[in-house]
Design brief:
With 269 residues, this protein is of the alpha+beta class. Helix content is 60%, strand content 8%. It has a four-stranded antiparallel beta sheet with strand order 3-4-5-6. Helix 11 (231-244) runs antiparallel to helix 12 (249-268). The radius of gyration is 21 Å and the shape is globular.
Length: 269
């Protein structure tokens, strides 16, 4: 399996790192086609914006091109489907989630010279636009609309509770490895929900290349192995989690699971 380290992602555009991640999870990912499509869209954008002189108007024109003419949009009907996390599929269907849509828009915008960066806000991925000498503005990549700090504060309260307050740390530019780590977690959750356990296992194995001893990833890997009928490996992973996190509420449940699985194995053998 391809091993991906932080320095790889830092050297790439976010969408390129996401494609590398997608390929590591699913070898059928159409990386070459996606690269060609990104290049084609960039050329089309360059031609569409060639007569725009004012930089801010050029950016507004890019948003119109991306969301209205090209038809990229948030997938409201199947938000949690794994296809929304695979860049080639998003380029094909023009539907995605904030991080996948944002990564594609970010790639084109940066290639065109716009001062756009990614932000992993607690509720979702955002894009931050910073014109020289002006206050930063924030874009929801799900629909291309600008979002006020007041609205972001309301999102935060909805996510963390009534005492949550918007702070500057919530709006800092995020490095690619952090975004890719969240992207990997989203894909794993989606694949588990779809019971695509072989691909979900690849997600867990990749995550463990970054944090080899993470008990929560190992617990999840145990669950996947259990679904794949690899019960002894699942038992080992569950026991590791129980040993490392004895006070976690899940540990007590897993103890019962381990006991049941162990007695089943004894009966079978």
């Amino acid at each position: 399996m391809l091993e991906l380290f932080d320095e790889d992602f830092d050297a790439m555009e976010l969408v390129e790192g996401a494609l590398a991640l997608n390929k590591a999870i699913n070898p059928q990912t159409q990386v070459q086609w996606a690269d060609a499509e990104l290049s084609r869209l960039l050329q089309e954008a360059e031609l569409a914006l060639v007569h725009e002189v004012n930089e801010q108007q050029r950016f507004e024109a890019l948003l119109r091109l991306f969301y209205h003419q090209w038809g990229f949009q948030g997938d409201r009907e199947s938000y949690f489907h794994s296809e929304n996390g695979f860049v080639d599929k998003v380029l094909e269907t023009r539907k995605g989630i904030p991080v996948s849509l944002g990564a594609i828009l970010l790639y084109i915008a940066r290639k065109l010279g716009f001062p756009l960066v990614g932000v992993t806000f607690p509720t979702q991925f955002l894009l931050k636009l910073e014109w020289y000498g002006e206050k930063a503005r924030y874009i929801n990549p799900f629909n291309g609309e600008f979002v006020s700090e007041h609205t972001l504060g309301a999102w935060l309260i909805g996510h963390k509770g009534p005492l949550a307050k918007l702070e500057s740390k919530h709006l800092l530019e995020t490095d690619n490895p952090t975004v890719i780590g969240r992207w990997l977690a989203l894909l794993k959750s989606a694949l588990l929900r779809e019971e695509r356990y072989t691909l979900a296992l690849k997600c867990t194995d990749l995550a463990l290349t970054f944090v080899p001893d993470d008990p929560y990833e190992i617990r999840d890997r145990g669950f996947i192995y259990q679904q794949l009928d690899c019960h002894q490996i699942a038992l080992n992973d569950y026991q590791y989690f129980i040993d490392q996190c004895p006070d976690d509420p899940a540990a007590e449940l897993l103890k019962n699971q381990v006991t049941a699985m162990s007695s089943t194995q004894v009966t079978l053998h």
